[in-house]
Amino acid sequence: MRVVIAGAGAVGRSVAGELLENGHEVLLIDKSPQAVSVDRVPDAEWLLADACEITSLDEAALERCQVVIAASGDDKVNLVVSLLAKTEYGVPRVVARVNNPKNEWLFNEAWGVDVAVSTPRLMSALVEEAVSVGDLVRLMRFSQGEANLVELTLPDTATLVGTRVGEVAWPQNTALVTIIRGTRVLIPDPDDALAAGDELLFVASPEQERQLEDLLSPREGRGERGERGER
């Protein structure tokens, strides 16, 4: 798979390194000569250019990319790169970094973004995930599919403890994708029984999140948060 990453800062280089280890072809673009440090990611291709310019993206051959990652530290740049990648080059998958959570509402299909990754929000969600039992935590938003990756740790008071996965009437537009039990990662099987302390990861539509939370966790057993807001 060919991946172009716009933004060769610490985030862009880290993502590039992971992708290269997994056997993908990676091109890093940055307009700052200081950011173009070939020795830091020697197996990647490098391009010193402004990723917001069509001529730069032509040189990067975006039409041959399967994925573009807009990973700069500037939300305006990431939005422009995403829009150009999707509308001018038809890139199948565009992932964009959100630096300021207040701008998250802009990172959607209208701007060419398939997946928006908000680092501050993700860090906050991971903290909540680590300390919350019985509360639904939103980890990631998939803009184009109008779905979220959410997590809930099953409390021991849940009525579904001991129930088999295949016997649960899950809400529509909801899929249980993983059960984390202690140090094990389980692919859900219809015969698996849910256990207290299980970390359940779902892909769910935003409209079904409250219903999913009510199904998994008795309301009286949750923390004093009142109405669940955006995490």
TrEMBL record:
GO molecular function annotation: potassium ion transmembrane transporter activity
Stored PROSITE patterns: RCK_C, RCK_N
- Please indicate which superkingdom the organism of origin belongs to: Bacteria
Q: What keywords tag this UniProt record? A: Ion transport, NAD, Potassium, Potassium transport, Transport
Q: Where is the RCK C-terminal domain?
A: 137-218
Q: Where is the RCK N-terminal domain?
A: 1-117
Task: Name the PANTHER family on file.
Answer: POTASSIUM CHANNEL PROTEIN 2-RELATED-RELATED, TRK SYSTEM POTASSIUM UPTAKE PROTEIN TRKA
Name the chain's protein: Trk system potassium uptake protein TrkA
In the record, what lineage is assigned to the organism producing the protein? Bacteria, Bacillati, Actinomycetota, Actinomycetes, Kitasatosporales
